[in-house]
Design goal:
212 residues; alpha/beta; TIM Barrel; two-stranded antiparallel sheet; 10 strands
């Protein structure tokens, strides 16, 4: 079971994720998010991440200039595309920057499922998140979940991550219903928007790994 703790912004929260056994740590580069970090902040945080833990940069509809500035400074292992990037753009970013790409796809109903197959052709991994309702400024990190039964028993040609509304209390059930082998959490381990709770990080990882 691989766990991703996203939206980290302090040395203490990064250390808590690493110590708990997270496989991925995520840094958000989206000014509208309460979890947004600057390129300089992210560099300092990333330098403390030990080998074996993947450093993921979450971006939203980033252009090449932004990605170049980010990757010149921050030692990133993977890009997470969390906007409305087309399959063509995903393939372009993957080719141009030479890093694995995780594409987030919002799910609200069965109508959203075909997009998963489309993006699986161009991304290294998929992140299945709850689709943000109209009017929400953030494409993710809203603490919302989708009907996990929609993807129960589904198989994808690339590794995938379950996200959206997960927390220490429900992650084991989510894993049981979906068969997920990877899970992602951000707001579900916070005590306030953008403020991680170190105990909840540890509890989440423990619950996820205990559900195997």
């Amino acid at each position: 079971m691989h766990v991703k703790i996203c939206g980290l912004s302090t040395p203490e929260s990064v250390a808590a994720a690493v110590d708990a056994g997270a496989r991925y740590v995520g840094f958000v580069f989206f000014p509208k998010s309460p979890r947004n970090v600057s390129i300089e902040q992210a560099r300092e945080l990333a330098l403390d991440v030990p080998a074996g833990v993947a450093k993921v940069a979450l971006v939203v509809n980033a252009d090449d200039a932004m990605l170049e500035a980010l990757l010149e400074t921050v030692p990133v292992d993977m890009l997470q595309l969390h906007g409305s990037e087309t399959p063509e753009r995903v393939a372009e970013i993957r080719s141009r920057f030479g890093l694995p790409v995780m594409k987030a796809v919002g799910v609200a109903s069965a109508e959203d499922l075909p997009a998963l197959d489309t993006y699986a052709e161009v991304a290294d991994q998929l992140l299945l998140d709850a689709k943000a309702p109209k009017g929400y400024e953030l494409p993710g990190g809203n603490g919302l979940s989708f009907d996990w039964r929609l993807i129960a028993g589904r198989e994808f040609p690339v590794p995938w991550v379950l996200a959206g509304g997960l927390d220490p209390q429900n992650v084991a059930e989510a894993i049981r219903l979906t068969g997920a082998r990877q899970v992602d959490v951000s707001s579900g381990v916070e005590r306030a928007p953008g403020v991680k709770d170190l105990d909840r990080i540890a509890a989440f990882v423990e619950a996820a790994k205990g559900a195997e």
